[in-house]
């Protein structure tokens, strides 16, 4: 039994990969460019399934509106579900599924890309060379070999980061309430988050955003870190207190910052705002630092990951319609 699926925050690549995967499912897909919000929820009024992306507003007001129009499944095309009011979904009996794993390689490899680019200033060198400026001043990097890399969160993505990192000859230290045997086998040792941030030359975040991990990197933890430390966040913006990070960049405590996510990225990332004046002064300040490299939440953005997201999302809907409980369930 096919579903009518309202796909929000649709970009051309979503349409392409979902349409390709849908050949095997036959759901009726309705694509909307609009972000899902309480106001746009009405677009899903003749659909039984809604398919939101990471910066859609899936709070209680939106869920109330969706429930009133008969939506019974939220099929998130993301791993993270911190943007969904699960209590509101449960209240209305709406099933929530996600894509727990699509390509952990995609995010792990992007994370390593940020580390190498920041270290060797590849983003700055690219611009210089295009202007025939071949001076090396300001481009000095450091050997990765022999450094200590701290990985916070050793689930699927963190594990792949550790796998890649071991090839550089670094010491890997990790923090996770559930130590991962695979990471222990790779030589990682587990520590408290405080001990990890105090010892690492590079700190990279791979845990989910929860009430417990909100502002995991705050002023206190930044003070514990080594002078000139590199901080990478490819997980969720809310893990980092951006104001504290800006202070740490200004003081030199933080030597490098690589971000693929930002606390206030909703309404900013995934859009072409190049003709507009940015209204977010905190984000604008971040852009002024020479030792900050920001990408707009593209860690997931590989061919393999998009194909897997589309396949898993549609498969979950098909399984629910067949009366099964898919493995991708967050809550039913
Ligand atoms: P996962 O669920 O496999 O692993 C998360 C790990 O974090 C688990 O081992 C968990 O025990 C650990 N953790 C939870 N609380 C912690 C804490 N307080 N301190 C230390 N560790 C803690 O998740 P996965 O697939 O590795 O993804 C990690 C995060 O990456 C996601 O939650 C998501 O926010 C982000 N992500 C970012 C993408 C991007 O495009 N930039 C794409 C996909 C995911």
Summary tags:
single chain; 332 residues; alpha/beta; Rossmann fold; 2 domains; seven-stranded parallel β-sheet; six-stranded mixed β-sheet; globular; binds 1,4-dihydronicotinamide adenine dinucleotide
What does this structure look like?
With 332 residues, the protein is of the alpha/beta class. The protein has two domains: 4-102 and 302-331, NAD(P)-binding Rossmann-like Domain (Rossmann fold, 3-Layer(aba) Sandwich); 104-294, NAD(P)-binding Rossmann-like Domain (Rossmann fold), CATH 3.40.50. It has twelve helices and 13 strands. It has a seven-stranded parallel β-sheet with strand order 8-7-6-9-10-11-12, with helices on both faces. Strands 2-1-3-4-5-13 form a six-stranded mixed β-sheet. Helix 2 links the parallel strand 3 (49-51) and strand 4. The model has no long low-confidence stretch (mean pLDDT 96).
């Amino acid at each position: 039994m096919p579903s009518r699926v309202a796909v929000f925050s649709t970009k051309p690549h979503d349409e392409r990969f979902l349409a390709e995967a849908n050949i095997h499912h036959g759901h009726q897909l309705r694509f909307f460019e609009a972000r899902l919000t309480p106001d746009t929820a009405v677009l899903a009024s003749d659909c039984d399934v809604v398919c939101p992306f990471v910066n859609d507003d899936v709070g209680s007001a939106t869920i109330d509106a969706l429930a009133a129009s008969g939506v019974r499944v939220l099929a998130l095309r993301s791993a993270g579900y911190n943007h969904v009011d699960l209590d509101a979904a449960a209240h209305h009996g709406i099933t929530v599924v996600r894509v727990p794993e699509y390509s952990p390689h995609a995010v792990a490899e992007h994370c390593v890309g940020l580390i190498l680019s920041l270290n060797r200033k590849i983003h700055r060198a690219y611009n210089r060379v295009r202007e025939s400026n071949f001076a090396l001043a300001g481009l000095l990097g450091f050997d990765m070999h022999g450094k200590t890399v701290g990985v916070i969160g050793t689930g699927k993505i963190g594990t792949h980061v550790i796998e890649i990192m071991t090839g550089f000859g670094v010491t890997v230290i990790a923090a996770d309430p559930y130590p991962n045997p695979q990471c222990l086998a790779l030589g990682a040792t587990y520590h408290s988050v405080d001990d990890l941030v105090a010892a690492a030359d590079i700190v990279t975040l791979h845990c989910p955003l929860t009430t417990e991990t909100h502002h995991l990197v705050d002023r206190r933890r930044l003070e514990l870190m080594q002078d000139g430390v590199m901080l990478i966040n490819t997980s969720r913006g809310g893990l980092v207190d951006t104001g504290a990070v800006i202070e740490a960049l200004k003081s030199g405590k933080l030597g490098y910052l690589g971000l693929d996510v930002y606390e206030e990225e909703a309404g900013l990332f995934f859009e072409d705002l190049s003709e507009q004046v940015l209204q977010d002064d905190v984000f604008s300040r971040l852009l002024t630092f020479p030792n900050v490299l920001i990408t707009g939440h593209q860690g997931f953005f590989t061919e393999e990951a998009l194909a897997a997201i589309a396949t898993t999302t549609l498969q979950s809907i098909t399984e629910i319609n067949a009366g099964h409980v898919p493995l991708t369930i967050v809550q039913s």
